[in-house]
Design brief:
The complex is a heterodimer of chains A (319) and B (319).
Chain A lengths: L1 H31 L4 H11 L3 H12 L3 H27 L2 E2 L5 H18 L4 E2 L1 H25 L2 H11 L5 H33 L3 H26 L3 H26 L2 E2 L2 H22 L4 E2 L1 H23 L1
Antiparallel strand pairs in A: 1-4, 2-3
Helix pairs in contact in A: 1-2, 1-3, 1-8, 1-9, 2-7, 2-10, 3-4, 3-8, 4-9, 4-10, 4-11, 4-12, 5-10, 5-11, 6-10, 8-9, 9-10
Chain B lengths: L1 H31 L4 H12 L2 H12 L4 H25 L2 E2 L2 H22 L3 E2 L1 H21 L5 H9 L7 H32 L4 H13 L1 H12 L3 H26 L2 E2 L5 H14 L1 H6 L3 E2 L1 H24 L1
Antiparallel strand pairs in B: 1-4, 2-3
Helix pairs in contact in B: 1-2, 1-8, 2-7, 2-11, 3-4, 3-8, 3-11, 4-9, 4-10, 4-11, 4-12, 4-14, 5-11, 5-12, 6-11, 8-9, 10-11
The chains are: A mainly alpha (319), B mainly alpha (319).
């Protein structure tokens, strides 16, 4: 137990470090090749936070623990919507979102959650389902890039440009990418192995581990960055991080994994976590409607719902 | 069979009279102790009129028929809103205070959801009963603490409901006699209802949901309709919301401590508890709209209750 815990924590920390190094390297290299700071910042904000999740997912699927991977993807998405958004609104006060492109993405997130629920009803997410998810992600990306390139407002543009500023020395960045990737490979394997060990000693399944403690720990860096963005009043960056990483995880990563090897989907997932994910995704729409703002009170409700879900999950295994 | 029906009617009548006598005795004692009129009204009317449910459920658990306990509480909560609040609103439209919508109603919705979560595990364990009782203690402490902020007008209104103070020996006698009537009547009602259920081939759940639930709600019905007629809307609504909270926290908590309660009755999870939650949630827009439960709302509640009983009968006779 103690050993597993120690290595798990080390793995999580290494995942965060490796992801940070690799992401900075990639961003700097992109700036070096002449990509605009806005574009780099947008991609960084949207997908940077899910690099640890992606690495973990690859490690878990390759290591023969698809339930852990699936649980982590869904768990991390719920963490983003409930814990991160809720905490940010409660800590930093009302979150204002200005970018109009986020509205269709909120709806896209609901559609993806709905699609996952529908696909899971036969007990597996297979090749065809994966292909649909990946195609959906590609279509969405093309739409967003077209939208964001043309119509971003100056205020929003400034928020993302600040994100995208990186040192652009090519050699340094290549080194960062190399080191980051190496750390990620080791960290993903270590984390998966000891998360599974922890789950076994605690007497819970891989799926449960992925949904609960693995999802929260792997999201800690993203939560920290999100809170900083919220305090600095960059609501669009925070929102892009939440929705971007959820769409990436739930459609592209899940889709690619399912094409490679179908996921078995447990009944409990269809009954509890997927509907909860759908509810969280759907809740954003009325929250943002009209004032495009998440108030402290609304953040508190999100946090409360998240706490209730996790209490319920632990309660159901501990009794 | 006729004898069983007579015994059931007699048991329910003894229950109602016993509750009334008990409440009057408790009022006298409370006034002797110098408690504020508001506290006497809320605690005594809400809590005192819930004692029949407590007696029925604990009595059922002691005699080993635990199936009826959860069904009784759920049915009673549905009847409280559907019949009692519905009828009270038809008698006279009920004005609502904002505090009711902001504090007590969300607590009632949250507790209904909590019951759903607990019931989903198939059995409510002893230590979960202890937790419910602890939550009940916290709720009572909260009520007493916040009651100091209540406006003078509300306090007068509640105070007017209570009979003038009597000699304390008489109040004590009332409490003893009332409790005896409650326990004896409950015993009679449960026994005759159970044998009637077997005679007619109905599930114990259905009997708990209809006959016993309505029977044990008669004290609430009488006091709420009378309060509405006299223009004391706060008491009618407070009584219903208070009773529903007491029913889950105190009645089910105490019953589960006596014996673990199975929640595997066929319609409980997908019909009865969701209907109970629905009746709680539908009150939010009703009360927010003009801070009033109108006659039309009352008719709607009554019709919804009738529809629910119709579905319940259909399901239990068909399946």
């Amino acid at each position: 137990m103690g050993d597993h815990l120690l290595w798990f924590v080390a793995g999580i920390a290494a995942l965060a470090l490796g992801a940070d190094s690799a992401v900075r390297g990639l961003a700097g290299l992109a700036r070096n090749r002449g990509v605009a700071a806005f574009g780099v910042g947008l991609v960084l904000a949207a997908f940077g936070g899910s690099v640890p999740d992606v690495a973990l997912n690859v490690g878990a699927v390759a290591g023969g623990h698809p339930a852990l991977a699936l649980g982590n993807m869904i768990g991390a998405s719920i963490v983003n919507l409930g814990l991160l958004l809720g905490l940010a609104a409660v800590v930093a006060g009302p979150l204002d979102v200005r970018s109009p492109v986020l509205k269709p993405l909120v709806i896209a997130q609901v559609v993806v959650a709905l699609a996952l629920l529908a696909m899971s009803h036969n007990g597996r997410i297979g090749f065809l389902d994966g292909a649909v998810l990946v195609l959906g992600f590609v279509a969405l990306s093309v739409y967003v890039l077209g939208f964001a390139g043309g119509r971003a407002e100056p205020e929003v543009r400034a928020q993302f440009e600040a994100e995208g500023e990186q040192r652009s020395d090519a050699a340094l960045n290549l080194l960062r990418i190399g080191i980051g990737a190496a750390i990620l490979v080791w960290a993903a394997r270590t984390t998966v192995e000891h998360a599974v060990g922890l789950a076994a000693t605690a007497g819970v399944g891989d799926l449960f581990a992925g949904l609960t403690f693995v999802a929260i720990s792997a999201s800690l860096p993203q939560i920290a960055l999100g809170l900083i963005a919220a305090v600095q009043r960059r609501g669009d960056v925070l929102m892009a991080s939440v929705i971007g990483s959820n769409l990436l995880n739930l459609s592209l990563v899940l889709g690619v994994s399912a094409i490679w090897q179908p996921y078995p989907v447990a009944q409990s997932l269809v009954q509890l976590e997927l509907p909860v994910l759908l509810a969280f995704a759907a809740m954003l729409y009325p929250l943002l409607r009209g004032d495009m703002r998440i108030t402290r009170g609304e953040g508190f409700v999100l946090l409360l719902a998240f706490a209730a879900l996790h209490t319920y999950q632990w309660w159901s295994v501990l009794r | 069979m006729l004898i069983q029906i007579l015994i059931l009617a007699a048991g329910v009548a003894i229950l109602a009279v016993g509750a009334d006598v008990f409440v009057r005795g408790a009022c006298g004692i409370a006034e002797r102790l110098g408690m504020s009129p508001f506290i006497i009204g809320l605690v005594v009317v809400g809590f005192g009129t819930s004692t029949p449910e407590l007696a029925v459920s604990v009595g059922a658990a002691l005699s080993g028929s635990t199936d009826i306990a959860v069904g009784n509480v759920v049915g009673s909560n549905i009847a409280n809103v559907g019949i009692i609040l519905g009828l009270a609103a038809v008698v006279a439209p009920l004005a609502v205070r904002m505090r009711m919508v902001r504090v007590e109603l969300p607590i009632m919705i949250g507790i209904s959801l909590l019951l759903w979560a607990l019931a989903s595990f198939g059995v409510i364990l002893r230590w979960e009963g202890v937790l419910l009782l602890a939550a009940f203690g916290v709720f009572m402490w909260f009520l007493l603490r916040t009651s100091k902020d209540e406006s003078k007008q509300v306090q007068d209104e509640y105070g007017a409901e209570n009979p003038k103070g009597k000699a304390s020996w008489r109040s004590g006698l009332f409490i003893v006699v009332g409790l005896a009537g409650l326990i004896g009547g409950a015993q009679l009602a449960v026994e005759s209802a159970t044998s009637l259920a077997r005679l007619w081939g109905m599930s114990e759940l259905l009997i708990g949901l209809t006959v016993v639930a309505i029977g044990t709600s008669l004290p609430e019905l009488a006091s709420s309709v009378a309060a509405a007629y006299r223009g004391h809307a706060d008491i009618a609504i407070g009584n219903v919301i208070g009773s529903n909270i007491y029913n889950v926290l105190f009645v089910l908590g105490a019953t589960a401590v006596v014996a673990p309660l199975p929640t595997t009755a066929p319609t409980l999870m997908w019909l009865d508890i969701p209907v109970m939650i629905g009746f709680a949630v539908v009150l939010v827009p009703m009360m927010l709209m003009g801070l009033k439960v109108t006659r039309a709302n009352g008719v709607f509640l009554l019709l919804a209750y009738a529809a629910y009983i119709a579905v319940q009968l259909q399901v239990s006779s068909g399946g």
